[in-house]
Amino acid sequence: MSTTTDTRQALPVGTWQLDPIHSTIGFEVDYLAGSFRGQFREVAGQLQTKGETPVLTGSAKVASVDVKDENLAGHLQSPDFFDAERYPELSFESGEIERTGDEITVRGGITIKGVEKPVELTGTIADPITENEKLSVKLDTTVDRTEFGVNWNVPLPDGKPALADEVKLSAELFFVKEA
Fold first, then answer.
1. pLDDT in tens, 29-48
2. Per-domain residue ranges of the chain
């Protein structure tokens, strides 16, 4: 005879605002013979856990993309990549959040260049630090950038593309509970 135990846990109740100073939303994509990384400096978000359906929302200003090369930062603003003039913000909204112990799965929609696609993010969540009412969540997922119209590429001498289509998105989020 075997038994199963449901180890799902509730999320901490409340409205949690993103602490943008301590939070990081970044990306990583294979480029040439290595990986290229960047992050967004201007981010906002909220975790609302009151009621039956918790909701995580977030956004990042495209103009705040931070990479090590100033010329590349400008190219990322162009229509070849994020097209910041027409689409100044990336956004996410969850439809479902599941917590099992320290693990968390968040399903929702991500919007890049005006195109929304479903995505599943997985990661970890820490219980709140009681005295400061702070909560941390780490999430990762992979998306195909071409599904969002981010199609720029150049062929290498062997004919392969210089830039991979798959992009890893990572978020290390710190939330502060509203009073």
1. 999 878 999 999 999 999 99
2. 15-177
